[in-house]
Structures are given as C-alpha cells and as structure tokens.
Amino acid sequence: MTSVLTLVILAVAPIVVCYLASWYQFGHLGPTDAPHRATKNQDEPAMPCVMAGTALERVTRWVEDGRAVFESGCRILHTYDQLTEAADAAQKEREQLQQTLATLRAEIRRIHAEIERLQSERVESARWYIALMREATARLRIDHPPA
Questions:
Q1: Which of 39, 41, 74, 119 is deepest in the core (most CB within 10 A)?
Q2: Whether pTM exceeds 0.90
Q3: Residue 132, in any domain of the structure
Q4: What's the number of domains the chain is made of?
Q5: Is residue 32 part of a domain?
Q6: Per-residue confidence of the chain (147 residues) as pLDDT tens digits?
Q7: Contact 20, 57 (CB under 8 A)
C-alpha cells in the first residue's frame, strides 16, 4: 500500500512543479499582484525580473522543501508498516499465549479433580482400615480368666 502511495506522490510531484513554474512564469503570482497586472501594457514582459526571480526562488524552495516532506512521508509510511507488522505479530503471539493459557488452565482443573478424587479414596481407605482394625481387635480380644 505504501509503495503505491509513494509512487503516486513521486509521479505527481513533477507535474505539480511544472504547473507551478508555468503558472509563476506567466505572471500569476496571486491576489496581491492583481493591481500590477491591471496596469501593465501588452508590450511589457509578463512580470518584472525581480518578481520572476522571487517566484523562481519560491518554486525552487518549494521543490526542495517538497523533497524533504516526501522523504519524511516515506519514512513515516515505512515506520507505520513496520509498526503494523510488529503489532500483528504481537497480536498473533497473544492469541497463541491465550490458547496455551486455556490449555494449561484445563490441565490444572483436571489435576485438581484428580487430587480431590485421590484424597477421597485416602479418607475412605483410612476409614476402612480403622473399621477393620476395630473388628480384628474385637474378635481377637482375649479375655483373661479372673485370678
């Protein structure tokens, strides 16, 4: 996307510069010059040399500034692309980590259920063993004859 935008900007820039140069060359400097254009003769040049030099300087400065602006714009677009890629990668990693987290939480729930089952079995085994020992003790009790 940014490559296409950069190409369009770079393709349009010379056209705009040529248009502005021809516009300035033929005396179209803007509304402040309207009185000058209204009083000049047909035989006079389109604009005085001083004004032509100023206009040329403005166009030259605009072109030079435009290059810097276009370069800055390209850098900004390049940085934007890099940041977008980094954000997409971070989003993908986040989704993977969330999936891993869900899997680990399910495993923890399963392990807790297993622990509870084993503790219940242990309590039941202890109760059975105590009952067995009481019964064995009751059966094996030897009554001593009175002396």
A1: 74
A2: no
A3: no
A4: 1
A5: yes
A6: 556 666 566 666 666 766 666 666 665 544 444 444 444 455 555 555 555 568 778 878 887 888 888 888 889 999 999 999 999 999 999 999 999 999 999 999 999 999 999 999 999 999 999 999 999 888 887 766 676
A7: no
